[in-house]
Structure formats: C-alpha cells, structure tokens
Structures
1.
Amino acid sequence: MGNSVRPGAGLLSGGGSRTGFTRIVLALVWLIIVPTVVLLVLGILMLVFNRASLNIVFGILLVTLVGVLATGTVLALVFLRREANVSKLQSDFVSKVSHELRTPLTSIRMFVETLQMKRVSSPDEVDACLNVLNRETARLTQRIERLLDWGRMESGKRVYERKLERAEDIIREAIEAFDVSHVGRHEPVNVELAPELPLVEADRAALVDALVNLLSNAYKYSRERGKIRLVVNADDKHVRIAVVDQGIGIARPEHRRIFEKFYRSNELLSSDVEGSGLGLAIVRHVIQAHGGRVELESELGKGSTFTLVLPRPDAVKRRTTRPSAAVTQV
C-alpha cells in the first residue's frame, strides 16, 4: 500500500503547475514586494529625520527598484507564458487521451451488444467478435498502463530491477511484443545484431517497453509503412540499440522538445496519427534511469534514427578497478 500510486498522479494533478506558480510568487516577493517595503521604510525615515544622506540612499534604491521591477515583470511574464503553454499541453493531452480511450471502448461496447443480441450465429463470426474484443481490450489496457507508468515515473515511485541481460534476448522479446500489438503488419522488422554483443545491466521489461514505443512510432509515422531496421552494436564503453525508419522525419529545431511530455510536433499532429505525447518521454526516462541516453538523428522527409545508448557493465567495472600507475624508483 505504501508504494501505491493514485491513477494520474504526477500526470494531470497540477504538480508542475503548482511548482511554476510557486516560482512566480517567489519572484514577485523577492524582486518586487521586498524592495518596495524597504523603499517605503526608508521613505518614512526620510520624512522623520530629513537627512541628506538618506536622500542619496533613497535615490540609489529608487533606481535599483525600477530595475528590479522591470526584471520581476519580465520573469513573471516568462513564467506565466510557460505555465500557459503547459496548461494548453495538458488540455490537449486530456483531449487526445479521451479520444484514444473512447475508440476501443466504443468497439468493445458495439461487439458486446452484437453478441448479446445474437446478431451473429456461426461459430466463425462469434470467434471474429471475440478476437476483436480481445484486441481492443489489450489496446485499452496498454493505454491505461502507459498513463499509470508515467504517473509512477513522475512521482519517483517507478522501481527498476536491473540485472545482467543478453541484448539478444531483449531484442527478441521487444520484436515479439511489437508483432503481437501490430497484427496484420506485412513488413517485418529488419534486425541487425553485431556478433558477440556484451551483456547489459537492465530492467528487461522497462527496456522492452521503451523499444516497443520506438518501434510503434517508427511504424505509425513511416511513409507507406516503409522498412524498419533495428541495429544493435557495441563499442568499448556502450551498447547502442538503434531504431531506424523511413518516416516523415522530425525538424531539427524540435529534436529536443520531442522528448517533452505531452509534446507532439506539427508534422506528427498533421499526420493524423493517434498519440498521447508520452511515448518518447517514457523512453528517455527509462534510458536515463539505466545511466544511458537517447540520441536522435532526423530530418524532415528523410526518416528518423533513435538510438538507445547504454553503458557496458564490464566497461564500468574496468574503469573502477583500474590499477594505479606504477612508481619507478631511481
């Protein structure tokens, strides 16, 4: 019970907004209210004592106050604009998620009603309805699990159980999970594994989920469902897992923002593909929790390459056990 997470915690609970508004209040207090109070006190002292030295101090503080007021106003506007953008993103997110959840629910309700009213008679038709119900239920479960998983990540309650794993096993499981969730896909994923890959220290389920997210994006945004490649190799320090697609690509100015929660670029929005804007944020969170990073190479119209860069456990061990330099005695 102590590790339970309220659905949507850290997602739409307003935690980020509260933090932003707290910053605005603190900026207003320290940059505007405090100098104003100090200036008011000095003004009262000038009226009481009427000393020339206080006039000089008052002049200096007046100039300072004007600068501080201007700075505080600019900062307040910046924070307010940022919070307005976050609020808009959250509003868009609610709309997108509502649509994503409504679609499978509508299908489930329709086929349940079909079965209840006995509109199908043959066993084949019943099996077809049951298959659709199973697929839509799995789809709905996946959407909800993604929301809950992100809520756990944001609240710091996502636990990663890392242990040594074979990269080949992680890739195989990711491909199997991707195939199950994309039944009917004709083009197979072209997997290219370098020989003698080292072990990686990873939470297998989390890493598989990150790869499935990348493969799903590659499939959704590939023009005419172009070929998808999954390339795995290693160097002296890292294991690199790259998902390469021939999709619509991402403009260079958006390479950083694409990993922000709720964010979807204009090109992705115009492609009319379902998405909550959480997939890449989850991928980055998972890889950073493994001590790695996500690299992106993409241009509009030329596809994208997302690379998961994971540290090699044996490289870390070699670095920590490296012997000290020998001292030569003369």
Note: The first helix runs from residue 15 to 49.
2.
Amino acid sequence: MSELAVAAFAAETGSHLLEAPRSTRFARFMCDFDEAAYRRQLDQRGFRWLARTDPAFPPRLAAVHDPPAGLFLRGGGQVSVLCRPAVAIVGARACSTYGSSVAASLARELAAAGAIVISGLARGVDAAAHRGALESGLTAAVLGCGVDRDYPRTHALLAARIARCGLIVSEYAPGVEPAPWRFPARNRIVAGLAQVTVIVEARERSGALITADLALEEGREVLVVPGEITSHLSHGTNALLRLGATPVTCAADVLEALGLEAPVPPVPTLPTEPGIASVHAVVTDAPAAADEIVRRTGLAARIVSAALAELELLGLVSQADGLYRGVMT
C-alpha cells in the first residue's frame, strides 16, 4: 500500500493516520487516487515526498514506535541532512530574553560544529534556535500543519530563510490546517529526528515537556538548561533536573552527548578604546543595566555607552529589556 496515498487520504479526511485504514471510504479513495499525478503536483509546487519505506528515510525517525507514513519536504536541503548528528532545541513560546539568547547561542555553536538543529518554528525558543543555527549552519523546522503553511504566519520570512539551504518538514500534506492535536504529533517527529533534545525554559505543562517525554521514551538523551527558581518559565525545566536530567552549562555539554568536538573558537580581540575591556568583563560576569555598569567600572557614562555600542557591533554583547549581557562564545 502506498504511504503517499495514506497521507493524501489523511489530508482529505482531516485525520491522523500511520497505516492504511480498513474502511470502505479508503477503498473508494484508492480507486480514484493517481499517485503519479499527485507527485507531479507536489513537484510543481516545490515539495517532495519521502516515504517511510524509502531507504533515504531518516533511520532515527524510522526507529520510533509510531513513525509517520512519510515526510513532505520543502526547501533546498538534501534529505541526507536529516541523518546528520542532530539536536532538537525546544522550549517556551513566551520565553524570557535569557531563554532566547541561550537558545540562539547554543544553536549557533552546535550548527558550527556540524550538527543540524531541529525545532518546531514556534514563537520563542524555537524561533531563536532556528535563527541561531542559520548564522553558522543548518536547521530543519517540523510543522504541525501542511508543509505548505508558514505557521505562525509571522515566521514566514524565517521559514523562507530555513528553506534556502535547510528543510521544512511535515507529515501533513499541503493544505492541512494547523490544529491543537497535531502539535503533540509534531513533537514526536522533532524528538524522533534528534539524537539529543535540549529543553530551554518550560512551564509545568509546556509542550516542550511532551517532546522531552517522547525523547526519553525512545531512549534518547534529554538535556536541560537550568533556570531561575523564582520564574514560572523554569518550573518545568527545573522539575526535569530534579528527576535526573543532565544540565546544560555550555554547548560543549551537548556536543559531548552528540559525539562531536567543538571547533576551536577564535579568541576575541577587544579594541583598545578606553573602557572596552572593563565593560566587557562586567557584562560577561552577569547581565547588567547601563547605570550599574557605570557604577561597577567607575567609568563615565559616555565612555560606557561608547564601549557598549562597540561591543554590540562586534557581536560580543547583546542588549534586551534594558540589560546588557555577554554573548556566549
């Protein structure tokens, strides 16, 4: 039985199918289904289909207990990139500035080391992970709707960037609308494609915890970024740490789990302008507001301001919510 027919029938009926149903309705559907024509339509729209029985189907995803019938693909990346060392980075949609920064930094370093970063194109941590990975390597986005949709719509430009050299992936055919029940199903593919899953900020009932549970069920390693004990955004992740999850302190922790070596980063050469080194040392030690940096360095406000602007241009400092923090390198 054609896996593509199963996927096409699921799209037509609004159902979630892994195998061909034994129903009269499906039998009637098969009488009219023209797989060659359907494939031509996909090709004309720039989509590809990768059946579960195809030798190129990612082995890690094929190994889960409920693999999809196949994957619809959009983008310029080769299917083989899904077989590379892969890490899923997921977390809160309404994440903090810290969570966004950590997700982007981890993804950037992991992609630079040769891993492909998998996430769900959602707001917050997912988007930050995709953007960080795009700075140095490849990323793949897994959708909980048809492969032709950019969901959420505000991430259409991000999806286009991913598709240039990476992949947009979905088990759902073009035209399938997003629905709440499709996202837990999407999460199993995120976890299934990855060797290691990293959780960055998650509330107690976060969808990211579903991804963590699915990864653990498949015997995959789950790593967690520790969070502030007073933040609701950290309740879910800190609960995982209490249960024995491995904490992430730097990208090297994840690379070790992936069996990859970190590339030797270039040692940043700080400009010699007055105050640069002092200001950089303060924000690397802990996030700080401009007036606190002035107080801690003893420098004039104008010198601190100029130093911060220079460090931001060099990519050594980021600023959000009034706080400056050193960028992970």
Note: The first strand starts at residue 47 and ends at 51.
3.
Amino acid sequence: MLKRHILPVVLCILFVDLLAPLFALRAADFLYGVDVLERSGFRSLENKKVGLITNTAGVGVSGEPGYMMLLRNRIELRFLMSPEHGFSASAGAGKIVKDSLLTDDLKIYSLYGSRKKPGKKLLETVDVLLFDLQDIGARCYTYISTMCYAMEACNEAGVSFMVLDRPNPLAPVPADGFMLDPDYMSFVGMVPVPFIHAMTTGEIARFLKERYYPGLDLEVVRMKGYNPHRFPDEYSTTRFIPPSPNIRDLETVLVYPATVFLEATNVSEGRGTALPFKQFGAPFINAGFLKKELDAFRLPGVSFKAVRFIPSSSKFKGLQCSGVQLTVTDRIVFEPFRTGVAIMLVLQKLYPELFDLSTRGEFFDKLAGSPLFRKMVLSGRSLEEILAASRLQVHAFEQSNPGRFMYD
C-alpha cells in the first residue's frame, strides 16, 4: 500500500527534474546586452581600460548593477558618467547635476552639468567607452542625445564606443510624429529620427555611425531573446526600473509622447503629483468639458477621467488644477502621438485666449522637432491633417533607412 503512494511521488520528482532545464531556459529567455557581454566572459574588454555611461536602471536580468558586474569580473573600470537626472535617476528635469564619488576609487562624471559631452582629456584615459542607459523611445527623452554627444567625443578622441543594448519599451508602437528639422536641433531633439522612433539605443548608434561617424570603432552588444513586437513586461526576466524620476512605470512610458508637449505650455503635465504625464490640467480648465471634447475623438486604446489635483512642485504649485487622467485601455491599438495631437487641438479650441502655445513656443518646437506641429494647431488644422503631414515625413525616413533595425 505504501509503495502505491510512493510511486507517484517518485514519478513527479523525476518529471520535475526533467523539466528543470526547460524552466531554467524559460527564466533566461531574455538577456540585456550587459548580460550577453558577461556570458562571453567580457572577452572584448580584456586588458582594456573602460569608462561607462549609466545610471541605476542599468542592471542585468539578475538586478545587479552593470558597473558591479564589470568590477566583479575584474574589468578595469576607470570612471562612470551619468546623464540628465544623475546616476541615481532622481534629479528633476533640467536640474544641473554635479560630479560625485560612488566609491573612493570610482568617480561619476556628470554629463548634465558643466558639460554634456565627454571631455577629450578624460576619454584619453580609457580604451573604450560603454553606454548602458534605458531609453524610452521618444526623441525628446535626452538619453539618446547624450549618446550622440558621446559618440562624437569618442570619434574625435579615437576611443572605441560600445553600446550594451536594452529594449525600447515603445518599440511595438509604430514610428510616429514629426521628423527633426535641422534648424530646431537641440538637446531635446538631437537625433534625426521620428518623434516616436521604435529603435533601440544600439540601432540608433548604428544609424548615427553610418550618418555622422563612419570612422568610429563601434560595437553594439545585442540582446538575447529580444522581440520588438513585445512590451518589456512580457519577458519573464525583466522588471521596470524608473530611468528618471517621473517615468515610474510602463504606462507612463506609453502616455509620455502624448503629454510631454504640455511641458512647453501653461498646462501642468502632472509633475509634482502622483501621476506625472498620466494626468494634466490647469486652474482655468473645466474638467467635464475637456473630457467630453476628448471623448468625441474616439481615440483608440485610451480613456479619460475628469480629475482635480494640486501639484506639490512645478507649475501651479499649491493651486488646484482641473483636468483629465489618461488610462491606456488597450496598448496594442493606443496611438500616443494621435492622442497628443488631440489634446493640443482640444485645449486650443476650448481656451484660445488662455491656453498658451506662444510664450514657450520655441521650446515646444524643439520638443516636436519642428514648428509645423504648433503652427498647424494654431491655424485650426484637423487631427487627420496634422497626422498626415507627420506621417509623410516618417514614411520618407523609413524608405531612406530600410536597414535601421537589428532585431526581427
């Protein structure tokens, strides 16, 4: 009788043992570039002096910081560099970040302080500069601008550049928005790609090398198991780490390209609240009217809720604002740029004398990459007309750069 009970248990144990390798494989179905580099034994960094541009989101699938992975494997890491928001990814937007010490032997040089471009003298102390930052897929997010400056500096100094690739969390969203007009190039728009570009940092690095730095020694360490048609939370081995203080979760990444333009207006984009970029408003807005007008567009994959909030910082600090909260109901069909255009059109329609697109118009145009978006809103052009104008530009870019992707 006892044997009859033991046999199923033994068979169950054997079955689990047989499946264990499959579960282990599933657990490692995705690897960041830094993990792939470690799997190689860091051969390409052997006997080389190394610098690293990163922040706290630059981790491996185990959660271990990339710089610690390098040190643990006895790579000669000379220094770190950090982008906007600092190494801790906690400094506010536009806030100057100073150089600092991570340990007595490891200094962090800020690329958002007295310099935005790595200095030649410092680069001459290394053989290769690594780039490992989590981008979010919108051109105005400044990490790809930092990469552009770093590539330029390495090209001038004769130093190799290596990108440890990471997913673009917006990659499943097709490229959209206006292209960068060279006359409006700035730190919030430096790379000539669509506003929503659908490319990884590694893909952008290859694009920049081909266009501007053909002599640069560039290596992109590809991810393992990356599928550009999947969102980051669809991988079993990834977790979201905020790359900056107001990009707190994946839904914020999705709506950021829709509401970021409000930064250049007199409407709060939700900074100083619990839902930055996921809600917006101003003291002069009637939330009910705003929601009704936005609902009339029948925008795919998003709903709007009338809200009131009081920002603790940034615009309208301490004042009650009325507006709406965005909720992505179906991220497969959600169109961030379409939603952003609709928001601008509704605010201009409801509050032509109060909604201010002019005072900081130059900054708006730099965010958008072109003055055309703002001019079309102000002239009362329709949603479809604005989208058609931007998509003609995107189509021309796609036709000119068919080989821009590295992953199927």
Note: The CA atoms of residues 20 and 125 lie 46 Å apart.
